[in-house]
Amino acid sequence: MIELYESQRAMRNMRKAAMQRGVIAILDIGSSKIACLVLRFDGTDRSLETDSIGSLAGQSGFRVIGAATTRSRGVRFGEIDSMGETERAIRTAVQAAQKMAQIRVDHVIACFAGADPRSYGLAGKVEVAGSTVDEQDVARVLSACDVPDFGHGREVLHAQPVNFALDHRSGLIDPRGQIGQELAADMHMLTVDAQAIQNLAHCMKRCDLELAGIASSAYVSGVSALVEDEQELGAACIDMGGGATGLSIFMKKHMIFADAVRMGGDHVTSDISMGLQVPMAVAERIKTFHGGVVATGMDDRDMIEIGGDTGDWHHDRRTVSRAELIGIMRPRVEEILEEVRARLDAAGFEHLPSQQIVLTGGASQIPGLDGLATKILGQQVRLGRPMRVHGLPQAATGPGFASAVGLCLFAAHPQDEWWDFEIPVDRYPARSLKRAVKWFRDNW
């Protein structure tokens, strides 16, 4: 736990150093595309000046000066599958973005989906040392949260305080400077498969880049696609990517739950490819131009030319009705949404005061998806686009760039996490001693 704490702190310090130098790159490593944005900070970084524990309030202080995307290679289900290919794809995207920005970038903040995320809610309570709550008290209450044994081979990706209570008053965002006797905190912790993080860090090293932060795609998509009221009152963001569908639930501007379904738009494409016996590239084109999930009476007569270059004239001149295409696509989309619904039910989403659901990500652009999602998820569903950010090219304003834009906001104003506070020294040995005793018991 302590090693992880220190590596996260080192990344935080690197981010601060990069921001003082003025440029940082954002890397969204997806299963279908790798997007790189280069940000320039003009020195008005509020998060370095103010002391608020809070979410990403108001984007300012940066603009996008370089942007590039490339087809993703070597990434499956949101995780790195082939190191060499992923390295080449990342280098391609970063070099193109640097060329546009006309500046060299050393530090990147990356996000990825997948890696089997699991959410935990933790609570801690301490007596306030002085008469007013200070930084040290917040550190003590966060380290007093009882961390569950989340298993071997997993690492903490996010550990954010989501609520503070001072004596009988709950719902405080920042208790510092307030007077009280007993301070309690609720923390949301997200753990992921450690191997995915190690692979990502190793891949960055191979690309000669310094990793200045990592985030979950589901979290940063929610940051950019949910409007302020939705983040405050409670909403779910469903980020439908190529290889994985991430979902995050926000409440009081904090993420309180995150999960991922290992299915996405690429699975719909491969269904079309198998159903129509065409290559994946042709299936992707047919899905993009003619796809949908709701058939009407007209679709039986709407014929789509499949095309191809096999040399067999009859084979290449085949046509398929749009109704047949929808018949291939709809079952897979329904399966993804059913799976998402099961995860939302497990998280107790129906108990939130507001149950708005926002669909974003590249695969959310299938026509008719919002209507089908409303039926399956049984809630109000809207299609979300990322917030507007200074200097963002028009091509990067679609739903497919929600996580890249969210990562920009996260880079500029990261929400306070557990490692932003000094853990009291007396917590160090207890943790490591417990760990040593467990290791001793397991190995002897």
UniProtKB/TrEMBL annotation:
Domain SHS2 intervals: 24-225
Gene3D superfamilies: 3.30.420.40
InterPro entries: ATPase_NBD, Cell_div_FtsA, FtsA/MreB, SHS2_FtsA
Cellular location(s): Cell membrane
Cellular component terms per the entry's GO annotation: cell division site; cytoplasmic side of plasma membrane
Membrane topology: Peripheral membrane protein
Main location as per UniProt: membrane
Any one GO biological process: FtsZ-dependent cytokinesis
Keyword Cell division on entry: yes
Keywords: Cell cycle, Cell division, Cell membrane, Membrane
Role of this protein: Cell division protein that is involved in the assembly of the Z ring. May serve as a membrane anchor for the Z ring.
Alphabetical list of PANTHER family matching this protein: CELL DIVISION PROTEIN FTSA, CELL DIVISION PROTEIN FTSA-RELATED
HAMAP family xrefs: FtsA (MF_02033)
Quaternary structure and partners: Self-interacts. Interacts with FtsZ.
Family statement: Belongs to the FtsA/MreB family.
Protein name: Cell division protein FtsA
Lineage of the organism: Bacteria, Pseudomonadati, Pseudomonadota, Alphaproteobacteria, Rhodobacterales
Name of the gene this protein is made from: ftsA
